[in-house]
Write a structure and sequence with these properties.
Elements (H helix, E strand, L loop, with lengths): L1 H34 L11 H23 L2 H7 L1 H31 L4 H5 L3 H26 L4 H24 L5 H36 L1
Helix pairs in contact: 1-2, 1-8, 3-4, 4-6, 6-7, 7-8
Length: about 220
């Protein structure tokens, strides 16, 4: 099992800088389109713009999760326990949500009871819990990076900024409900997109720096 895990995580670690950059770009694109709603007479909630915004937003979230998993092998070397806690907090709720979606689909066909409706008040609460725990896991990664200097304090701080954006968004939903205020979506999108671009840039440059230093060390 450990060998299989390494085979899955090693490619994620290798490609995580590029994935972070792509995720950050998509998050900024989604946020920029949403910001247009603040312009009088402009609405992005229709036609091709709402499709692009939704696709970019979903893609950014999905890629950010994949990119975060790529940090686990790096953090595990210096702080294995904290790294395991962080990745566990991220992965377990996502797995539960995916299983619940499959079960929910089967319930419509076979008449099986929904796990969400059985154990949680609503699917939205389940999704909110997934994002909250994803933010908690990212916070653990960020604190681990700062304390151990495994990724550098700057990169650790960027991870915490990314997590803070999720806390703000979830808190805003609790306060304002739907639709979410444009300024809040724009602010959190800017925080998420900017932090992920910064993380990808730092990882990419750090890796290139180590690669260039190897011949000198020999």
């Amino acid at each position: 099992m450990a060998t299989v895990g390494r085979r899955l995580l090693n490619p994620l670690e290798q490609w995580s800088p590029i994935v972070f950059i792509l995720a950050g770009g998509l998050a900024l694109l989604s946020s920029s389109i949403n910001t247009l709603d603040a312009v009088p007479g402009v609405s992005t909630q229709q036609g091709i713009l709402v499709f692009i915004e939704g696709l970019a937003g979903f893609g950014g979230i999905l890629l950010s999760f994949v990119a975060m998993l790529g940090l686990y092998p790096i953090l595990k070397k210096d702080a294995p326990r904290l790294a395991r806690v962080g990745v566990g907090v991220m992965v377990l709720p996502v797995l539960f949500f995916l299983v619940d979606l499959v079960w929910l689909s089967l319930s419509g066909v076979l008449g099986l009871p929904s796990l969400t409706l059985t154990y949680l008040p609503s699917p939205m609460l389940a999704l909110g819990a997934v994002f909250f725990l994803f933010a908690v896991g990212t916070t653990i990664f960020g604190v681990t990076a700062v304390l151990t200097d495994a990724l550098g304090q700057t990169l650790g701080s960027l991870l915490i900024v990314f997590a803070m954006a999720w806390y703000l968004l979830i808190g805003g939903i609790a306060v304002y409900g739907f639709p979410i205020p444009v300024w809040l979506v724009s602010l959190t999108g800017l925080m998420q997109g900017g932090s992920m671009l910064g993380i990808g840039y730092r990882l990419r440059n750090g890796r290139e720096g180590m690669t260039r230093a190897e011949p000198v060390a020999r």
